Amino acid sequence: MLRKLLIRNYALIDSLDIDFDEKLNIITGETGAGKSIIMGALGLILGNRVEGKYVFNEGSKCIIEGYFDVRNYALKDLFDEQDLDYEAETIIRREVSSEGKSRAFVNDSPVTLQVLKALSERLIDIHSQQATNQINTEDFQFLVLDSVANNAATNADYTKKLKAYKGNVSALRELEERIAQSNAEADYNQFVVNELESAQLIENEVEDLESEQRQLENAEDIKRGLLNAVQSLEEGEQNALQSLKESLSEIQRIASYMTGGDDLLARLDSSIIELKDISAELATQEQTVSVDEERLAFVSERLSTLYNLVQKYRVADVEALIGLRNELSEKIQSLTNQEAEVLALKKLVETSESEVQKAAQKLSDSRTKIVPQIKKEIEKTLLKVGMPNAVLEIELIKDQPFNAYGTDKVSFLFSANKGQSPQAIHKVASGGELSRVMLAVKSLVARSSALPTIIFDEIDTGISGEVALQVGEVMQSLANHMQVVAITHLPQIASKGERHFKVYKEDQAERTLSRIEALNQDERVLEVAKMLSGSKPGDAALQHARELIQGE
After folding, report:
1. What start and end residues bound the annotated signal peptide (predicted)?
2. Which residues constitute the domain of residue 26?
């Protein structure tokens, strides 16, 4: 629950400290005194975005702090989930600079607005006049049913199973689309594979064929060159081997007379042997080279085939053609495997659909079971607040397609008068009736959801007299289960508070400030009397105020 609210340098507020009671807190004040400013400040620590200029003194930043007692509300898991330090008294702080930049903290740890909202939704429910139309929305109507039915775990289970089912359906759809596309491409893919397989592609074949083609095209020149080389080395009248042999003979003759002669003889002898080997190899090479026009035609045709395939399929080389062939072969083969995957996924979809259906049915059954209790409790509260003939009907339409709420559709129908058929609430309820219906609904939901705090922000539009008194008593009763803060203009409601705060304006030399003070018993009597009869209440108004506060 909200223990304390500190506001510094915000709008018309220079500094306010508000210590709240754990039960019913009343906030009153003239129109424009600053009640909405206090709610705006509270909204900032609940995660609302900074809009407009809030800073009172541009030389300082705006600071809002809320002190919350969270020990009895099972929030530790949420703190752990958001990686926050859990403290029994949790402090939420929002700082806004004069430029409008803001920072948020929970127990001095910086947090995003998303985290702040996630936490605040578990701490405070603010109900204002603008929120009355919530009751017409399907979201809110299911919230009422599921809160009273205690369906949090069941809802989580359904949501988890629905997500798994949708994931399986999506996977099946994607696989079927891929198969359909593959089937459409299958004939073409098979044609490509057949053509590439019939080409009997070999890695590096182009390089080998191009080398062979160059040799075949120049065969006569190659043979002539090899023959000339052999002749120059060994067969001509003046050949290299003969010259080396003559040199060897001369060196042998003089070797014994010179230094290093034996080494020179050895080197000449080695050169003769090497040249003989080269000459023999050249002769052998010359024998293997032939002018083969038929082979040349084959090689040229083979190269042309490979070049055409590379160009046709727009790849870089034969190796890429081999990769394309293998890839398409795998696609063709995978069609058989994908059909098996489809059967497996269809079975998974059927299984997950059955699980979602069971979870949805469990939700629907629990809602159906709780409807009479909700109807009874709300109509009982409406009787207390001056609507003895009010009827609330809750229609559950079952067996709908899966949606966020299961397989149900819900509709709240309302009638305030005898003989009037229940219809959609917004069509038949006045502003005052809407406020009372919403009070009854919120009271029931708040008790069921165990929220620490609920704030009623001027929801007393359109009511007065005895009805207002009954509305105050409902709030007072609700405060036995949770903390309630009510901002009101009605003395009947104001008289029911455990603690009463008055918001007022104070004119200083250069500016006007909003102030708030907690009233003692005599001040409460005076304030309620002013709400009854004006700024100068008489004895009758004062006595009436005392009676209201004392519950007489």
Report:
1. none
2. 1-123+451-518
Same structural domain, 185 and 114? no
SS (HEC) of 77-133: HHHHHCCCCCCCEEEEEEEECCCCCEEEEECCEEECHHHHHHHHCCCEEEEEHHHHH
Q: Mind listing the pLDDT tens digit for each residue in 324-342?
A: 899 888 877 777 677 788 8
Q: Which residue has the tokens 């009751």?
A: 135
Write the pLDDT tens digit of every residue in 280-333.
888 887 777 777 788 888 888 888 888 899 899 898 898 999 998 998 888 777
139 belongs to a structural domain = no
Six token digits for residue 379:
């109509």
Residue 421 within a domain: no
Decide if 112 contacts 104 (C-beta within 8 A): yes
Q: Determine, yes or no, domain membership for 462.
A: yes
Last residue of a domain, one of 289, 312, 335: 335
Residue 463 lies in a domain: yes
> What confidence score (pLDDT) does residue 501 get?
93
Q: Give the Cβ contact number of residue 198 at 10 Å.
A: 8
DSSP state string for 383-396: HHTT-TT-EEEEEE
Question: Does residue 229 share a domain with residue 103?
Answer: no
Residue burial 222-249, b: 16+ Cβ < 10 Å; e: rest: bbeebeebbeebbeeeebbbeebeeebe
Q: Could you say which of 310, 335, 360 is where a domain stops?
A: 335
